[in-house]
Design a protein that fits this description.
Layout (H helix, E strand, L loop, with lengths): L6 H11 L3 H16 L5 H24 L11 H11 L7 H17 L15 H12 L4 H21 L4 H4 L5 H15 L4 H14 L16 H20 L8 H14 L16 H13 L15
The structure holds iron/sulfur cluster.
The site of iron/sulfur cluster has 14 residues, from helix 11.
Length: 311
């Protein structure tokens, strides 16, 4: 299989071969496995994806059942949201609310040190499965279509990681929640019948929506604002997929949007890239939480030497 480095090339190949993005990324994975001397059959790859999907399903169930983080900063919000969905939901039941419940549940399980599947990272692990588990009900997806959803989102994440970054420490939260939102938007658009062009438009629109988002975890823990940002990523992804399916295009091509995300990350001061030295992490309330958590002795931090970097 020809090696490609841009979404423009991937779209061209998909159009020539009449493939979906899921077909492209599956063949790419088969090709890589063959080169590595691993089992390169589609069955072997789908089997691995099935394991990932089962981890996601269990995490959603566990989170909705109620979990709390070790620090005590977060927990039980998925349970609250689930009860709100069943008993009230004054704004109406929708794929948005279903996906938010799952996303918060899965990210709460991450904060409680439970088992999750990083998509693309642990901090952003709720976005892709949150949408998939909601979309499969709304779109009546078969099991194979659900695995294709994961193959498409995973392939898009790999591209973003190679062309830019999926690390908050390197590119800020736009690289984590932003990438997750782009991955989910592309997979959702495809699951709803969108072409590769429409799906990559969805990715670009989603990534643009969260461009510049900083990484500022309170007390250096992947909890606040991370868990609620998974809901933000979900809503942004669904809206982006809707826009792309309606025929709206990203005026800036997908590859250039990813490149812009990379350059924004490079320009971002280190205080806003997972060091907890800026943004929400430096608010008076966050400092109080940090002090209180230190006093409990449950969590320890290495003392930072030297002055705070300028923002
Ligand atoms: S704020 Fe930072 S740690 Fe939290 S999800 Fe975003 S990138 Fe990850």
């Amino acid at each position: 299989m020809r090696r490609v480095t841009t979404f423009a090339q991937i779209i061209r190949t998909c159009e020539e071969e009449n493939w979906k993005l899921a077909d492209y990324f599956l063949y790419q994975e088969m090709d890589w496995r063959q080169r590595e001397g691993e089992d390169s059959s589609p069955e072997a790859i789908l089997e691995k994806m099935e394991i990932n999907l089962q981890v996601m399903e269990s995490a959603a169930k566990e989170g909705i059942g109620g979990v709390q983080s070790y620090s005590g900063l977060t927990g039980y919000d998925a349970t609250r949201l689930n009860a709100y969905r069943s008993e009230k939901a004054p704004l109406g039941k929708s794929i948005y609310l279903d996906a938010i419940v799952n996303a918060i549940a899965i990210n709460e399980v991450n904060a409680s040190m439970g088992l999750i599947c990083a998509t693309p990272t642990a901090g952003s692990c709720g976005v892709v499965p949150g949408i998939l588990l909601a979309a499969r009900e709304h779109l009546k997806l078969t099991r194979r279509q659900q695995l294709d959803f994961l193959i498409t989102s995973g392939g898009c994440g790999l591209m973003i990681g190679n062309l830019a970054s999926i690390s908050g420490a390197e590119g800020g939260c736009q690289a984590e929640i932003g990438s997750a939102s782009g991955m989910a938007a592309a997979a959702l658009a495809e699951a709803a019948g969108g072409t590769p062009q429409a799906s990559t438009n969805a990715l670009a629109i989603a990534l643009k929506g969260l461009l510049g988002l900083v990484c500022d975890p309170v007390a250096s823990l992947v909890e606040v604002p991370c868990i609620k940002r998974n809901a933000t990523g979900v809503v942004n992804a669904i809206a982006s997929a809707e826009m792309a399916l309606a025929g709206m295009q990203s005026r800036i091509p997908t590859d250039e949007v990813i490149s812009a995300m990379h350059s924004v990350g490079q320009l971002m001061p280190s205080a806003l890239r997972e060091t907890a030295l800026g943004g929400l992490a430096l608010t008076p309330t966050a400092r109080r939480y940090t002090r209180e958590l230190k006093q409990t002795g449950k969590i320890t931090w290495k003392e930072r030497k030297g002055p705070l970097p300028s923002i």
